[in-house]
């Protein structure tokens, strides 16, 4: 088995697609309540460091929705949006960090993509043994 293969049982999957236009006019200061309800400060820093933050906000929202759907599919609970943090690792690949004791025995893998007007995310939950 190679270094990137996982031999754990899949316990949940989730997918989500969003219109990027929903995030086009979202700005810090003007939409603070909404932003803080959905995103962590690290996610906001990353998204608003980009020239066009809308696709980055949308794809992270898609990612959180996909993770929540996968968690529900696995029967593992009900996290808040801010319990889930989606950042990029050193290679640029997205990774999921979730801070709740209910999710300490799972590995969550995620794939994110966006085009001109849509964002898409797919999440898979593996049960750690």
How would you describe what is shown here?
The model has no long low-confidence stretch (mean pLDDT 90). Helix content is 28%, strand content 30%. Strand 2 and strand 3 form a beta hairpin. Helix 2 (41-48) packs antiparallel against helix 3. With 129 residues, it is an alpha+beta fold. The longest helix has 21 residues, at 54-74. The strands form two sheets. Strands 1-5-4 form a three-stranded antiparallel sheet, covered by helices on one side. Strands 2-3 form a two-stranded antiparallel ribbon.
Tally of separate helices: 3
* Fraction in helix: 25-40%
Average pLDDT, to the nearest integer? 90
Got a strand count? 5
Tell me the structural class: alpha+beta
Q: What is the radius of gyration computed over CA atoms, rounded to a whole number of angstroms?
A: 15 Å
Please give the alpha-carbon distance between the first and last residues: 17 Å
């Amino acid at each position: 088995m190679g270094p990137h293969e996982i031999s754990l049982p899949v316990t949940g999957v989730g997918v989500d697609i969003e219109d990027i236009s929903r995030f086009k006019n979202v700005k810090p200061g003007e939409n603070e309540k909404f932003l803080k309800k959905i995103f962590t400060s690290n996610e906001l820093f990353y998204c608003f460091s980009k020239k066009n933050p809308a696709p980055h906000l949308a794809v992270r929202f898609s990612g959180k929705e996909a993770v929540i759907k996968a968690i529900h599919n696995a029967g593992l609970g009900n996290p808040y949006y801010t319990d889930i943090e989606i950042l990029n690792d050193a290679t640029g690949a997205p990774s999921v960090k979730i801070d709740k004791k209910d999710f300490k025995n799972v590995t969550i893998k995620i794939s994110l993509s966006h085009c001109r007007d849509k964002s898409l995310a797919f999440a898979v939950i593996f049960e750690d043994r």
